[in-house]
């Protein structure tokens, strides 16, 4: 009988879940994060007029690094063999702000949901860091999983975006 998937051992102590009996399959996850900002800040990002440089290029690198470092940041998170990380940004005047969307793929016994969410959060934090000198009122909002696929549970898609 397979061991239950729980982060607690029989005595109640925290432990990493055993995934040894799970098959390796192709898995993917998509997460998003939003950074709300003043319209003028968004326009400066659009025009490449942020003093620290290309905000979205640096945020893309931060997202990739964040996904790769997730097991070091999130306790009890398994290292996942990542096979791809795609990062896209949408400048949204109606927010106003930037939406970061990260798709992470892997072939492993567990999925890359945490890697996708960590990457989206890292992108949002980097946007904040690069723009805070001109807009300290920015907020990082709604870091969330959009979809996941692969593994025993198959495909899951969020029905509504926060």
From TrEMBL:
The broad enzyme category this protein falls into is: lyase
Alphabetical list of InterPro entries matching this protein:
MoaC (IPR023045), MoaC_bact/euk (IPR047594), MoaC_sf (IPR036522), Mopterin_CF_biosynth-C_dom (IPR002820)
Matching Pfam families: MoaC
Q: Which UniProt keywords apply?
A: Lyase, Molybdenum cofactor biosynthesis
Q: Does the keyword DNA-binding apply?
A: no
Entry binding sites for substrate: 76-78, 114-115
Instruction: Classify the source by domain of life.
Output: Bacteria
Q: Which pathway is it part of?
A: Cofactor biosynthesis; molybdopterin biosynthesis
The record's EC number reads 4.6.1.17
The Molybdopterin cofactor biosynthesis C (MoaC) domain covers: 16-151
A GO biological process held by the record: Mo-molybdopterin cofactor biosynthetic process
From the UniProt record, list the reaction(s) this protein catalyses: (8S)-3',8-cyclo-7,8-dihydroguanosine 5'-triphosphate = cyclic pyranopterin phosphate + diphosphate
Q: Which residues form the active site?
A: 129
What's a single GO MF annotation on this record?
Answer: cyclic pyranopterin monophosphate synthase activity
NCBIfam families, A to Z: moaC, PRK09364.1
State what this protein does: Catalyzes the conversion of (8S)-3',8-cyclo-7,8-dihydroguanosine 5'-triphosphate to cyclic pyranopterin monophosphate (cPMP).
The Swiss-Prot or TrEMBL record describes its family as follows: Belongs to the MoaC family.
Official protein name in the record: Cyclic pyranopterin monophosphate synthase
**Organism, scientific name:** Nannocystis exedens
For this protein's source organism, the top of the classification is:
Bacteria, Pseudomonadati, Myxococcota, Polyangia, Nannocystales
Q: Source gene?
A: moaC
